[in-house]
């Protein structure tokens, strides 16, 4: 039997900038005595993100969930929204808090993003938008979705929580659609401890979104809409600013790890890997999903997940169970059988991937996985 790891290997670990540099940044914040509410570090971070994301139209938040919730509210999305069940719960929660009915349709089997044909089939007179997810950073089929949205006069909204740094045809992914939300949570390849960002092509949306994240205040004495409190603070902005400087190394090391996994697992019977990305995509290697075929591999996904824990390897079943199977969404009626989504949710396992994970550790993880199969 192969030896367990001495220390736990988690599905992810946050990238941390130098502690000394972060401490220098804290001195600046201490001197400013400005901790939140559109402070100077946040303003500087915003300008750097505008450059990185190639847009003027963005707004920062304390987390991605509230960013998406406010984005939907700001755009006045209502009625029914067609969305995926194969995502993190926050995607649907953002609809719930806007009193929008989610209509779950299936995903496609290669990259696990919304199947455009299923989207079109689910449109009703009450549909107002499509909420698609670039799950694992895999870009959705944008052309097909945008075509459907245009023909049926629907808004096209992306949950791009996993997709920071992804480009399609050289264009940053946030520029696709009517609105994109990015999560800057500690578990993401780019993070601000916690945080979120909205990007939107309509500059007119900015004022509304900025009011909504600050209680609806227009000025000291006017509240023009029922907003909430979803502002990013100065410590978050400082972390984000520092991590942003390291994006090229973060992406390069994730790529190396991802490709190493692929080369070591591609011939293991019963393990399916996502196909290589289309040429036009610059990927961010956000997650390392594999699918387990129980018969061929000789062990179920759940058994493998449990067995790996005995080796001190903590993989995750992102995203199982399907969202529509959670108690709070179980009563929503669904017409689509969600065949692909169900199969993927029951067979997928996301393996550890983060910049500090050594290639030697990747080799050990793959040896252990291979040894557990038949
Ligand atoms: N849409 C999508 C598609 C999303 O995936 C998410 C978030 C959202 C929307 C909402 O965005 P936010 O509001 O979160 O900005 C994690 C994250 O909390 C969540 O942000 C993320 N998606 C989701 C996919 O994963 P958990 O419950 O799996 O995280 P947790 O705490 O179990 O962490 C996973 C592992 O990461 C740990 O076992 C160890 C490691 N870890 C984690 C933290 C927080 C660290 O090493 N250090 C840390 O500080 O949800």
Strand content: 15-25%
Structure class? alpha/beta
Number of helices: 13
Give a list of the ligands: ligand T4K
Helix content: 25-40%
N-to-C CA distance? 14 Å
| Sequence stretches where pLDDT stays below 50 over 5 or more residues | none
Give the averaged pLDDT, no decimals. 97
DSSP strand count: 17
Strand arrangement across the biggest beta sheet: 2-10-9-6-5-3-4
SSE order in H/E notation? EHHEHEHEHEHEEEEEHEEHHEEEHHEHEH
Report what the structure shows.
With 374 residues, the chain is an alpha/beta fold. The protein contains 13 helices and 17 strands. A 7-stranded mixed beta sheet has the order 2-10-9-6-5-3-4, with helices on both faces. Helix 6 links the parallel strand 5 (127-133) and strand 6 (155-159). It is globular, with a radius of gyration of 21 Å. Bound molecules: ligand T4K. The site of ligand T4K has 24 residues, from helix 3 and helix 4.
Topology of helices and strands:
Layout: E1 9-10, H1 19-32, H2 40-53, E2 58-61, H3 64-75, E3 80-83, H4 89-96, E4 101-104, H5 116-121, E5 127-133, H6 142-151, E6 155-159, E7 167-168, E8 171-172, E9 179-183, E10 196-199, H7 205-212, E11 217-219, E12 222-223, H8 234-245, H9 247-265, E13 271-272, E14 281-282, E15 289-292, H10 294-297, H11 301-310, E16 313-314, H12 339-347, E17 348-350, H13 359-372
Parallel strand pairs: 1-16, 3-4, 3-5, 5-6, 6-9
Antiparallel strand pairs: 2-10, 7-8, 7-14, 9-10, 11-12, 13-15, 15-17
Bound molecules: ligand T4K.
């Amino acid at each position: 039997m192969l030896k367990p790891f001495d220390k736990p290997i988690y599905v992810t670990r946050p990238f941390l900038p130098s502690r000394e540099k972060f401490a220098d940044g804290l001195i600046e914040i201490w001197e400013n005595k400005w901790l939140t509410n559109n402070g100077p570090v946040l303003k500087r971070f915003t300008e750097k993100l505008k450059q990185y994301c190639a847009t003027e139209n963005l707004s920062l938040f304390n987390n991605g969930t509230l960013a998406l919730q406010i984005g939907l509210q700001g755009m006045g999305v209502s009625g029914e929204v067609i969305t995926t069940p194969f995502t993190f719960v926050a995607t649907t929660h953002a609809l719930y808090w806007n009193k929008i009915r989610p209509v779950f349709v299936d995903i496609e089997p290669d990259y696990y993003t919304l199947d455009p044909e299923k989207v079109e089939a689910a449109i009703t007179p009450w549909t107002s938008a499509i909420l698609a997810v670039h799950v694992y950073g895999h870009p959705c089929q944008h052309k097909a979705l945008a075509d459907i949205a245009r023909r049926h006069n629907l808004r096209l909204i992306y949950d791009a929580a996993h997709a920071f740094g992804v480009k399609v045809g050289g264009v940053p992914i946030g520029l696709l659609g009517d609105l994109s939300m990015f999560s800057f949570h500690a578990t993401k390849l780019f993070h601000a401890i916690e945080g979120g960002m909205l990007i939107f092509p309509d500059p007119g949306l900015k004022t509304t979104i900025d009011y909504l994240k600050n209680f609806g205040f227009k000025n000291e004495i006017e509240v023009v809409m029922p907003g909430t409190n979803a502002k990013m603070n100065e410590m978050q902005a400082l972390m984000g600013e520092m991590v942003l400087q390291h994006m090229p190394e973060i992406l390069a090391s994730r790529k190396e790890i991802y490709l190493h996994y692929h080369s070591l697992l591609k011939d293991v019977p019963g393990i399916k890997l996502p196909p290589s990305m289309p040429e036009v995509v610059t990927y961010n290697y956000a997650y390392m999903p594999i699918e387990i075929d129980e018969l061929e591999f000789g062990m179920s996904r759940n058994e493998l997940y449990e067995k790996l824990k005995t080796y001190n390897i903590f993989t995750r079943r992102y995203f199982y169970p399907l969202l529509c199977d959670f108690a709070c969404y179980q009563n929503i009626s669904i017409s689509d059988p969600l065949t692909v989504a169900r199969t993927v949710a029951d067979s997928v396992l996301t393996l550890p991937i983060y910049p500090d994970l050594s290639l030697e550790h990747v080799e050990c993880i793959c040896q252990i996985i291979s040894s557990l199969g038949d």
